[in-house]
Amino acid sequence: MILVTAAGGRTGRSVVPALSGTGEPVRAFDIVPAVTELAGDVGVEAAVGDLRDASQVRRAMDGVRVVVHIGPPLHPDEAAMGHVVVSEARRSGVEHFVQLSVTHPQLEPLLNHQAKLDVERHLLLSRMPFTILQPMHYMQNVDIEKAVSTGVLRQPYSIDARLAHVDLDDVATIAAQVVAKGEAHYYATYELCGSDYRSARELAEVITSVSGRTVRAEAVGQEGDPIVTLGLSEEDDYRADARRRLFGHYGRYGITGNPNVLTWLLGQRPTTFSEYVRRCLANRGEDE
Questions:
Q1: I need a surface site. Which of 87, 98, 138, 156 has the fewest CB within 10 A?
Q2: Which residue stretches of the chain have pLDDT < 50?
Q3: Concatenated DSSP letters for the chain?
Q4: Nearest alpha carbon to residue 13 among 38, 46, 50, 49
């Protein structure tokens, strides 16, 4: 049995189907009731629970051989949740712990990177066989359909800042490969990065070329985001602070990475942004 935590989010919804393709049963665990939608896939069961509650996590570990831990993004308790999952996996005798972290977790001014680095440290001291996957900025963060339909690619930081990207589908493929081959990937840390290192202006040019529709890049502020402006709860305040730090860093420094490791793991070059755009537009056509 493979346990996937925070499985109802964007990453989990890509990773769970990839893992189910290994033939081993998968348990998708999340506090969000919508995680039950994943149980429609063959070999996938769903469990609703809170990663902050050790007793609930312990129950989710029943019969589990491998844990694939995804921390809920920009959550103030992400590090604490990771500690609970690692500790309960160790208590349960899990054979292999796979953590979905982030590229360059040592960028400690970024709150989400701080949390993932904290979990990495806890995992390194657990004595469990582990694999740490450090994916780059997802291509899926770029809404292709919206950019094509509106003619504008908007982002909340400089449109001249260059970022490396990775296709989440490639990340899910590697997660499944790491679980399936197990021991060959014990005690490894893999940076997962594609070959595209582009600014929003350059991404807009790619979308224009592939779609045949003119798309321009535009920087927008965060004032229209109610989570950023209102701070309705402590969690909202944390997310607002995390976003401001993240977008401020991206706007000033961008973020870089190297595709060599992902190329080696895939056995071929990673998905390019132009291929990702074509896939999105093809899927859009099928849905119409």
A1: 87
A2: 224, 226-227, 288
A3: -EEEETTTSHHHHHHHHHHHTTTS-EEEEESSGGGGGGGGSTTEEEEE--TT-HHHHHHHTTT-SEEEEEPPTT-TTHHHHHHHHHHHHHHHT-SEEEEE--S-TT-TTSHHHHHHHHHHHHHHTS-S-EEEEEE-SBGGGS-HHHHHHHSEEEESS-TT--EE-B-HHHHHHHHHHHHHHGGGGTTEEEEE--S-EE-HHHHHHHHHHHHSS--EEEE--STT-HHHHH--SHHHHHHHHHHHHHHHHHHHH-B---SHHHHHHHTSPPPPHHHHHHHHHHHHHHH-
A4: 38
Do 215 and 281 meet the contact criterion of CB atoms below 8 Å apart? Answer: no
- The neighbour count for residue 256, using CB atoms within 10 Å, is 13
> How much is the pLDDT for 287?
53
The CATH number that domain 2-139+166-194+257-271 falls under is 3.40.50.720
The predicted pLDDT at position 102 comes to 97
Residue 90 amino acid letter: R
In this prediction, residue 255 carries a pLDDT of 95
Give me the count of residues in the chain.
288
Contact 33, 48 (CB under 8 A): yes
Closest CA to 138 of 288, 3, 224, 11: 11
